[in-house]
Write a structure and sequence with these properties.
Layout: E1 8-13, H1 20-30, E2 35-41, H2 52-62, E3 69-74, H3 78-85, E4 89-94, H4 97-114, E5 117-122, H5 132-140
Parallel strand pairs: 1-2, 1-4, 2-3, 4-5
Helix pairs in contact: 3-4
Length: 155
């Protein structure tokens, strides 16, 4: 397939940390798109547990053998990143009505600013409670949250 005919999608988020829920969205998105760019957001307003470099490196290690995935950090508008990367789609995971309402507004901005189509993938029921904020809360209270993190296939 010619480079300009590839279906390239962005999957963006803070990913602090990248969870099994995120990994499930990536797995499912790879069935829909030729290439997936996992865009790790830099948001100075958020106090993250891990630095952007740590988040990018962890995701790169997880997908080191997958040629169709690229992991980047970004601190601008997603529409601008999509233009730079040749992406025409944005993939988002949705766990709840709250997620849906937020993503609906973001989809409108991304469509207006970058002519991006947003594809929503609903969380599988067994993963609806998995979230980065849930992970951080468990860690804060010294509880085991390792079950929320994906493992590389050969680990």
């Amino acid at each position: 397939m010619a480079e300009n005919n590839l279906r390239i999608a962005l999957f963006s988020g803070t990913f602090d940390p990248f969870t099994i829920g995120h990994a499930d969205i990536v797995r499912r998105a790879l069935g829909l798109f030729d290439r997936l760019i996992i865009a790790v957001a830099v948001n100075p307003a958020k106090h993250t547990l891990y630095s952007v470099e740590e988040r990018v490196n962890a995701i790169q290690r997880l997908y080191s053998g997958e040629k169709r995935i690229k992991v980047v950090a970004y601190d601008g508008m997603m529409a601008d990143l999509a233009h730079e990367e040749g992406a025409r789609y944005c993939v988002k995971g949705v766990r709840s009505v709250t997620d849906f309402e937020y993503e609906k507004v973001q989809a409108a901005y991304n469509h207006r600013l970058g002519d991006l189509e947003t594809v929503l993938l609903y969380a599988r029921p067994e993963l609806e409670a998995v979230s980065s904020s849930g992970y951080r809360t468990l860690v804060y209270f010294h509880k085991d949250a390792s079950w929320m993190l994906p493992k590389k296939d050969n680990d």
